[in-house]
Structures are given as structure tokens and as C-alpha cells.
């Protein structure tokens, strides 16, 4: 059931509840979801809260609305992903290198309007800003800046991240565990300040990677990465 004491809005709790029902097949593909008023009574929430949750499910492709008929669990979409969900450390280990990170900065600060909108939180809500230099065998690979809602991980400290890594800290100490991510890529020239941290000459080609990580539909991290163009390779496998 819903909990007013959790650090996320009621509609986000409904998103998690409904997503779980779809994933565990309590609401199988093709079934019609209960009506709005029935869900309002069952979860003791307003109609607008139910509608907000349903809007998120529609955007996530989990349900579809059919005018005059109702809302139905959607058939899973066939997607061609660039990479599976991953962590930097796990991928570097798989490649045979020794991963490490150097924390450039770790701060708690109020979210400005833009970042609050991207994280789906209220403006001025506290967030963690974590900037890390990611290395493989001691050589810089990427510069990452993560923005994390502090309310979801109030226990988080720089020392925990240093010892366990960010995602391991999230998974071991919270119910909000990263499970999906969407990445956007853009070719760039690395700035002078970033080039200095990455130990390359400017101008140097790089890749800007913007990653939105979620836990059952709740955004838990936005990560902006600068990846060295000559030290990282992304591969897409295409099949007929």
C-alpha cells in the first residue's frame, strides 16, 4: 500500500505498484486495467493522482489507452538497445582492466528549476552532485557528473561511494535500485577544463553521454559524462 512518509509523491508510488503488477503478470498483456474510480477507492487517492501515474505508464510504453474502451497492458515493444544496463566498474573488469575512480567533488545542494524538472522533483529539493574521474589501469576513460535526489538516499556519503561505488551503494542500502537507463549521445570537443582532468590536449574529440537512470519508473540519477573518443568504443549488434 501507499505510504505518506516515503520521500516520493503518491503518484510515483502508484507507478511502482502498477509496474510491479505488470512485471509479475498480475496484470498480463492485453488485460484491461481497473477503472480510475476503482483504483481511487483501492489506494485511497485522488483521481488526479491515478491519472498522473497512468500518464507515466503510457510514456513508459507499459499501457495503452483505447478511447471509449479503457486502459490496457501493452505488448512489450521490440527495442534495439545500444548496450545493456551496465556499471562502469563491471564493464571495465569484463574487458580485463582494473577499474578505479577518483572523486573530484561530492556536494549536497538545492536543485535548480532545470535539474528539478529533469529529476521530476520539486525545485530547491536537495540533491547530491557527484563528480568522478573514471579510470582503467590508472588511465582516464571518462569524467562523470551525477545528480541524485538526496531524499531517496539520505544515508549516502562520499566514503560509501569511495568504498563501494555509486550503484552498489544504492543497491545495498535502499529499495530504489537502478534497473533501467536511457542514454543520449553527442559528439563534442572536450573543454579545456575537462581536458586537463582527462589528461589530454585540447581540442580533443569526445562523446557527451547523458544518462537517465530509473528504479521502477522513479528517476534516481541523471549522469552527464564526457568520454574520450579514442579510449572507448560502443558497439551495436544488428541481426536480420
Could you walk me through the main structural features you see in this protein, from its secondary elements to its overall organization?
- The structure is a single chain.
- The protein is an alpha+beta fold.
- The protein has two domains: 64 residues, Winged helix-like DNA-binding domain superfamily/Winged helix DNA-binding domain (Arc Repressor Mutant, subunit A), CATH 1.10.10; 141 residues, Chorismate lyase (3-Layer(aba) Sandwich).
- The chain is 30% helix and 32% strand.
- It contains eight helices and eight strands, in the order αααββαβαββααβαββ.
- The strands form two sheets. A six-stranded antiparallel β-sheet has the order 3-4-5-8-7-6. A two-stranded antiparallel ribbon has the order 1-2.
- A hairpin with a 3-residue loop joins β1 and β2.
- The radius of gyration is 20 Å and the shape is elongated.
- The N and C termini lie far apart (45 Å).
- The relative contact order is 0.12.
- The mean pLDDT is 87.
